[in-house]
Amino acid sequence: MFLLTEAKLDRIIWNRNRLFLGGLIIFLIPFFLPKPWGISVSAPFTGFMLMSFGVYAFAFRSWRSNPGLWMLAVFITLANGACLFFYEYEQYKSLFVVEPGKPARPLNWNGLKFVLDSTLALLIYSRVVKFAATVSIENWKITKELKRK
């Protein structure tokens, strides 16, 4: 099933601080590493996605009692997705796309790090989308029931 159960929603909401702080740590690690491993080759998408997952869980902690929260879930999922795919594309373009007539670039540490980071970020984003979709649908049902009364 695509949607998450209520128990999984509650577990994600319960772990919101861990998600946010884990993403923040992953995001900040390159600032403290030496030059070949550090900021010069930073690809921060995984940390950003974990932080945003924590923010989602914080924002949707009252999904059972706050009617209309489904609109926020849909909006920030679309906005976050557009930002993620734009930055992923720009990073991809800067690492792999070559101008016509120039030799192909070999796969180096920057390219490998981008591929790994992008893969992890997209896996996390798929969980974020599942979480937001479940909150949206369940909260929409609650909102619809309140309007009928």
Describe the structure.
This protein is mainly alpha-helical. The chain has one domain (6-148). It contains five helices and no strands. α2 runs antiparallel to α3 (45-59) and α4 (69-96) packs antiparallel against α5 (109-148). The longest helix has 40 residues, at 109-148.
- Secondary structure tally, helices: 5
Whole-Å distance between the termini? 30 Å
Low-confidence stretches: none
Oligomer: single chain
Q: What is the chain-wise order of helices and strands? A: HHHHH
The major β-sheet equals: none
Report the structural category: mainly alpha
Shape: elongated
Q: DSSP strand (E) fraction?
A: under 5%
By DSSP, the count of extended strands is 0
Mean pLDDT: 84
Count of spatially separate domains: 1
Topology:
Elements: H1 6-14, H2 16-32, H3 45-59, H4 69-96, H5 109-148
Essential attributes:
single chain, 149 residues, mainly alpha, 5 helices, elongated
Question: How would you sum up this structure in a few lines?
Answer:
By secondary structure, this protein is an all-alpha fold. The chain has one domain (6-148).
